[in-house]
Design a protein that fits this description.
The longest helix is centred in the N-terminal third of the chain and has 9 residues. By secondary structure, the chain is mainly beta. Helix content is 14%, strand content 40%.
């Protein structure tokens, strides 16, 4: 494993506070394949120059406010793949319409693991997944993962842990 991958495993870990991340990452791409794998390409955020990129649309007061802000952008040098080789369910929501429920128990910052969630509760209704009479989960113990990005909230329920690694961008492909 190369140093950047070791750094990634330490930096972004589901269920950790991920204190090295000042801003939510950006979702760059979502890919599905024929084998029920789901691949997310995310980029960490980097800060632009304070007061730059301030299109105030001719509104003076807005221009004053934006001149004091620091824009954030996807960092092309910090791009990562999160791969779920098997998943039960996933959804991507517009973060503008997401609400947070006190009922849910979650750990982590940007890369979340849910101990309790409404999505976990409804899974046996939406799928063939069940908790059997002996307490065993079919097809295996489910985990609800959350990836909280700029503009997107991703939920994945899987019975396998995802893998994460740094990738490089070549043209529009990430390898």
């Amino acid at each position: 494993m190369i140093n950047t991958e070791r750094k990634l495993i330490q930096m972004i870990k589901f269920g950790n506070e991920n204190i090295n991340l000042k801003h939510a990452p950006f979702l760059i791409k979502t890919e599905e394949n024929n084998n029920n794998c789901i691949r997310f390409i995310i980029s960490f955020a980097c800060e632009g120059e304070k007061g730059s990129d301030t299109n105030a649309m001719g509104i003076n007061r807005l221009g004053e406010i934006l001149s004091k802000t620091t824009p954030i952008y996807p960092n092309k040098n910090e791009v990562y793949e999160i791969l779920f080789e098997e998943y039960i369910l996933y959804q991507t929501r517009n973060e503008s319409y997401c609400s947070f429920d006190d009922y849910e128990i979650r750990q982590g910052n940007y890369f979340i693991i849910f101990e309790k969630s409404r999505l976990l509760d409804v899974l046996p209704v939406m799928t063939d997944c069940q908790i059997l009479s002996d307490g065993i989960a079919y097809p295996g113990k489910w985990t609800h993962y959350g990836i909280y990005c700029q503009n997107h909230i991703i939920d994945v329920i899987s019975h396998h842990e995802p893998t994460m690694k740094q990738v490089q961008q070549h043209d529009d492909k990430f390898i």
